[in-house]
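Subject: complex prediction, re-run

Hi both,

The earlier run crashed halfway through, so I resubmitted it with identical inputs.
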Amino acid sequence: DIQMTQSPSTLSASVGDRVTITCRASQSISSWLAWYQQKPGKAPKLLIYKASSLESGVPSRFSGSGSGTEFTLTISSLQPDDFATYYCQQYNSQFTFGPGTKVDIK
Amino acid sequence: QITLKESGPTLVKPTQTLTLTCTFSGFSLSTSGVGVGWIRQPPGKALEWLALIYWDDDKRYSPSLKSRLTITKDTSKNQVVLTMTNMDPVDTATYYCARSNHFGVVIVPFDYWGQGTLVTVSS
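This time it finished cleanly. Structure:
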């Protein structure tokens, strides 16, 4: 089974900050990685697929990069609506989610 | 407009079998490349993928839960059903269904989600 880790687990930031979240896979997953945003009491929302492809309707301040085993999600300028928990997910072999990164207000 | 909605019991007893139904609209599970999956989330914890069924009836299961899960589809009713046997209090979670799609060689996982349904396992 492919295991996913994320760092940090919690990130405190201010509006306007550049935010980077890292996701690592236990073995190579090529570019088969997605990022989701989840707010309390709501279903996750797909942000990025295939490591760097922006889902339709997602603001361009979100971007993804990486391949193999190391990936990043970057929010170029954090907005009030972006305070949430972010999950990575590999889909190279079945599906595995990371443990999540909570982005809260500094 | 694509929508998915989960339905089923909110409370089950330990050792019972859980049956959840995902009813969707706006797409067809007979279209090449389309799949519907189940994901759960215990309160305050991370997401966990459970199962997925594709348009061609190919079925995939989480290795850790495979022995307890069955996923089926009824294309005519636009429904996907998940059964999970031998329920335990640790299975208490919000259960989501979500659509997966392929565009040629590009896979887009879980682009549309249901609102989720909370299932509590308690005697």
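Residues 24 and 78 of chain B are 6 Å apart (CA to CA).

- K.
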